[in-house]
Amino acid sequence: MVFLNGKFIEKNQAHISVMDRGFLFGDGVYEVIPVYNNKIFRLNAHLLRLQTGLDSVKIKNPYNLKEWGDILSKLLGFYNNQEQSIYLQISRGVSNKRKHSFSNLTPTVYIESNPLLTKTKQAFKAGFSAITQPDIRWHRCDIKSISLLANVMYSQQAKEKNVEEVILYRDNQVTEGATSNVFIIKDGTLFTHPTGVHILSGITRDLVLESARACHIPIKKVSFSMDELNAADELWISSSTREIMPITQVDGKLINRGNIGNAWSCVYSYYQSLKNA
Ligand code: PDD
Predict the structure, then answer these.
(1) Where are the alpha helices (DSSP H) in the chain?
(2) What's the CATH number where 150 sits?
(3) Which of 36, 180, 244 has the most ligand 1 atoms within 8 A of CB, as the residue to mutate?
(4) pTM, 2 dp
(5) Residue-level pLDDT at 142
(6) 104 and 137 co-located in one domain
(7) Residues 138 and 260 in one domain
């Protein structure tokens, strides 16, 4: 079952108009929200970011917080899996003419949920590989826009090169991953790019910072260079579907001699406790 414009229907019955601005212009925003033990994780934070994104692109939020909560709970009731990944998108809606500028339209709301396949700590222990690429994206990466062509291109490169993620840099400073936020540990301190227009303010990023505080790891929300990335003691990526992943190889070079680190172990364990709280 999926949710489309107020109705719960079978996915193969869900259709939208070719004049939908999401289809024609990528004119919309989205959220990906994890569900653990049948509980939607950090729903309010996701809905707040959704609201900020909608405000940025001048789409009216069709539902209030309670209505969103009710819709999502009802949708989850159709699934058996305890661990889910909700995908929710709002496009500006359907117009009768293809024109870049817009007038007031009724937003199209589409929600689906899929099983969330989280890896065990054991599976994480081998670490993951990444490659780096210049960040060619626009200067509003803070908006969780459904226009994801650059991210799609990067993710396809990752798939073709058989690596987990593409880590991006702008002016030699690491920004984020194609679909994740990026962190390094250097001499016991955690570094991550500050929020602003060059990264998406990840909900998991906030949880990583909360977990690092619990682990007494000092935090610097300042960007770091490509050289600093290569010389890092630990390197992690985070997202709602991946949680916190240790990266032990970048562009074929080993990080921490290919071992996952102690800081990651502590932060990962604390994050697990937040999930189950
Ligand atoms: N992507 N940065 C980018 C560019 C992302 O696409 C994502 C997540 C993140 C992490 O955000 P969060 O912790 O809130 O999931 C950072 C989602 C999972 C996606 O597009 O599927």
Answers:
(1) 21-25, 43-57, 65-76, 121-124, 149-160, 203-214, 226-230, 262-275
(2) 3.20.10.10
(3) 180
(4) 0.97
(5) 98
(6) no
(7) yes
Query: Which residue has tokens 């990583």?
Result: 208
Q: Which of 144, 186, 220, 253 is catalytic?
A: 144
Range of the domain at 9: 2-115
- Identify whether 144 is a catalytic site residue: yes
What pLDDT digit, counting tens, does each position of 10-46 carry?
999 999 999 999 999 999 999 999 999 999 999 999 9
- For residues 23 and 98, membership in a common domain is answered with yes
Of all atoms in ligand 1, which is nearest to the CA of residue 176?
2
For the chain, the C-alpha Rg in angstroms (whole number) is 19
Residue pair 106/4 in contact (Cβ under 8 Å)? The answer is no
- pLDDT per residue over 155-169, tens digit each? 999 999 999 999 999
**9: three-class secondary structure by DSSP:** strand
Among 65, 89, 115, give the residue marking a domain's end: 115
Q: Verify that 154 and 109 share a domain, yes or no.
A: no
Q: What is the pLDDT of residues 192-244, one digit of tens each?
A: 999 999 999 999 999 999 999 999 999 999 999 999 999 999 999 999 999 99
Ligand 1, atom nearest to 178 Cα: 4
Q: How far is the CA of 96 from the centre of ligand 1 (A)?
A: 32
